[in-house]
Design a protein that fits this description.
The chain is mainly α. The chain contains five helices and no strands. Helix 2 (33-55) runs antiparallel to helix 3. The protein is globular, with a radius of gyration of 24 Å. The protein starts with 8 loop residues before the first helix and ends in a 21-residue tail after the last helix.
Length: 192
């Protein structure tokens, strides 16, 4: 015996679609490989830490500290990919109700603030790197290496923020400017 047909069944399927979207790697560039390599180095160090601690019952002391520093590098080297692809977090709801000239002005302001933030953070990180005289706890390497890596990631963010701002200024558009009309309710199948 089959269950009775439900009129809302197509609607429920549309709301709870659990299929994965296709993965598109067409926008990945060679410079994104820095974050990718650091991420896999981090994965290797964490696996080594797990293996030596739980399988060999004699963990290496340096793995926890190095994993922490690699995680910091992943964040800052991954940040410039976010800046390059213009996928920063933004509050988009206000852009939907602003007139075009206000969206353009606010988008330019956001670009300038981003450049200033990344450049200032790079400057401070370089100064911190130059002043740091400590060594890492478990390995006899200078701790300033960590800060130099963060400074390199922030410097790349600054460069890409300038490129993105130039592109926005030249074209007169950005993802925030191209916001559509106020949010439209999605069409519900069978309820037209």
């Amino acid at each position: 015996m089959t269950p009775p047909e439900d009129d809302d069944a197509p609607h429920q399927d549309a709301l709870f679609d659990m299929s994965d979207e296709d993965i598109d790697l067409s926008d990945v560039q060679w410079i994104d490989s820095f974050a990718f390599i650091i991420f896999w180095a981090l994965a290797g160090v964490v696996f080594l830490q797990f293996f030596t601690r739980y399988v060999l019952n004699d963990s290496y002391a340096w793995t926890e500290e190095i994993a922490r520093y690699l995680l910091i590098w992943v964040a800052f080297f991954g940040l410039f990919t976010v800046v390059r692809k213009e996928t920063n977090i933004a509050v988009e709801i206000f852009y939907r109700w602003m007139p075009l000239h206000m969206r353009q002005a606010l988008s330019t302001f956001v670009d300038m603030v981003s450049i200033a933030f990344y450049a200032t953070a790079t400057w401070y990180c370089i100064e911190l790197s130059q002043r740091t005289r400590q060594s890492m706890t478990s390995i006899d390497w200078p701790k300033s290496l960590i800060y130099w890596g963060v400074a390199a990631g922030l410097a790349l963010c600054t460069v890409y923020a300038i490129i993105v701002a130039w592109r926005h200024w030249r074209t007169g558009s950005s993802p925030l400017i191209r916001m559509a009309d106020p949010i439209q309710a999605p069409a519900r199948p069978g309820l037209e």
